[in-house]
Design a protein that fits this description.
single chain, 2 strands
């Protein structure tokens, strides 16, 4: 992350209640915050008990919009 505001939010999630010198995460510093952005997501549609030796694929794709909506509901923001 290059944005200091984003880095501050990441710090609060990763190091809650701890003082960390954010400058150590920028420039020549050795530490970094990275943001992962999913491009696809899946859920297993079969349980372990339903697997057969012939099972080739047991996942179904989940639209990212559905994941974002679920995350917003969990965070208490149903409108997002």
């Amino acid at each position: 992350m290059a944005d200091r505001g984003e880095a501050r939010r990441a710090h609060e999630l990763i190091y809650p209640g701890q003082d960390v010198d954010l400058e150590a995460f920028f420039g020549d510093g050795l530490r970094r915050f990275y943001r992962a952005r999913p491009i696809q997501a899946w859920l297993n549609c079969l349980s372990e008990q339903q697997l057969e030796p012939s099972t080739v694929d047991m996942r179904v794709e989940v639209p990212l919009e559905d994941l974002r909506a679920a995350r917003a509901r969990i965070a208490g923001n149903p409108a997002a």
